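Worked example 2:
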Amino acid sequence: MGFLLSKSMDANLKKQQEFMLHNSRLQMERQILMQNQMRERQMAMQIAWSREFLKYFGTFFAVATVGLTVGAVKRKKPALLAPIVPLGFILTYQMDSAYGTLIYRMRGEAESIMASEHDRLDLPLGTPTFDSIEKARRAKSSLASFLEK
């Protein structure tokens, strides 16, 4: 009788472990999907910000270029055209960021760093562990209780 009960409990335990494994897998998949959607939304906002900034900076660049060109011609001072060069670099960068291939080049560079220079990505003192977090939490709570006294 005890053997049958034990066998039944083992079968139930195994089913429960499989169920828990399945649930944790689903939860992790959902977490990964949610984090990816959040990342996509943040990237979309960043690209939208670049495009909006480009509108304003493009207008500023056009007005500044016309004004500096007119001033350089009227005063016969070609040095007044000098600010157009750095402003042009900024405009080009913003155009590349908003509509160009900058994001693809950045992604490629990031993948290269992760593949060949992974040691640059290490955190100081290594990856936090449960023990290190718990130690910091205990220290903080003991300090808070000490300060309350």
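Residues 2-148 form one domain. The helical segments are 2-75, 84-99, 102-116, 130-148.
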